[in-house]
Amino acid sequence: MKTSNLYRQIWRSFMRTIRHIWQPLRSRKPCSASLCALVAGALTVLAAPGAYAADLARQTIGPISYVCGGVGEDEQQALQSEAKDFDMGLLFTEGARGEYLSDVAVTLSRNGVNVASFRSNGPRCLIKAPRATYQVVATYNGVDKHTTLRAGERSVQLNW
Predict the structure, then answer these.
(1) I need a labelling partner for 91 at 20 to 30 A (CA). Which of 3, 13, 34, 100 fits?
(2) Which run of H or of E encompasses 7?
(3) Are 124 and 90 in contact (CB under 8 A)?
(4) Domain spans in the chain, listed from the N-terminal domain onward
């Protein structure tokens, strides 16, 4: 998914939530203090600049740990602060301009054995794994890309 499409989906979801909350408040009846506080709190959380950076949770599959994201500036900063704990990284892009992609299926193999499979929720994935050479198969819209990944390679780019 292109970054602009992801932002559009996030914005639409945000607006649906606002409409859902706001609809009952459109009546002429005054709202109770607790309902007004609930709505104000929800709007504050949804509008917070780092609201989506919280999704950058480290995942673990056996000896492999990873975190994916980097859609917005806040997520990019969060990933940069996490990068010191990871020794490998992938970047998913599309086209000649290198537009960021998300929703990429990733499979890591070592010596022909699948050691981890996950779906990226952003253009960058940071990976920590035992020192070895890993074969990567990344799939976006049914198209596979193959690469090799080793410790210290933090910005291996796969472009569709």
Answers:
(1) 13
(2) helix 3-22
(3) yes
(4) 3-47, 55-159
Question: Averaged in consecutive runs of 10 residues, what is the pLDDT profile of the chain (160 residues)?
Answer: 60 65 56 54 49 67 93 87 93 95 96 95 94 96 96 94
Residue type (1 letter), 39:
V
* Burial of 125: CB neighbours in 10 Å, binned 0-12, 13-18, 19+: buried
Specify whether domain 55-159 bears CATH 3.30.420.40.
no
**In whole angstroms, what is the distance from residue 130 CA to residue 57 CA?**
20
Partners of residue 147 on adjacent β-strands: 136
* Beta carbons within 8 Å of 84's beta carbon, 6+ residues apart: none
Q: Among 70, 77, 67, which residue's Cα sits nearest to residue 126?
A: 67
